[in-house]
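Example record for the data management plan.
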Amino acid sequence: MAGFPDVVQLTKILSDESRVQIMTSLMDGRYHTVHELAQIARVQDHTVSYHLNEIKKLGWLHSFKQGRYHYFCLANADVAELIEKAMYLSPQKPIRSFRESEEHRQLAEGRSCYCHLAGKLGVRLLADLERKGYLKLAGEQVYLTEAGERFFSDVGLDLEELRRRKGCFVKVCLDWTERRFHLAGHLGTAFFKHAVEERWLKQHSVNRSVQLTAKGERAFRNMFE
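Corresponding structural encoding:
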């Protein structure tokens, strides 16, 4: 019979820096190989394999085998939101190298938070949507207006299909770097995916930062001016 939540098991996973690096890397919503994650965490492949097995015991990972490679991604958005909130609540470590400084700058400017847009770009997107009257915020609650229905439909999103999906249609997520909300839920995920497909956003090849392209700047300017 199931009993009380074993929070200690969760804290054990989050107590190891390499595991945290692995999980934050997987917050880009993409699949990664063991070797790719080892390069990011700067540890050996077998060490990453061990950490992945420990994380997988909590049901936080999906894996997929293709050919000789195993690929891993976070199991769902709940895991990503847990990590993002933990990052928000955690004390900040000093930056000790140019590489760390550059990566922090890139992530703060724009990044994927498990398939929705975070960082300055994500916060700006939510602010623009609210300013145009497409979304209405009341504390931590967010509502799609009639004008918002038309806007996202015109963008090309199938809102009825998104509403049929299991989980939250639209919500906000507290941003780790900006300390403000960005758009999440199925609506946020669908918009981010559309922006990547339209090449409004360019994803970094190693970390989870994203950059607004020239095409994206024009598209966002046309949508929100």
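Summary line stored alongside the record: The chain is about 50% helix and 20% strand.
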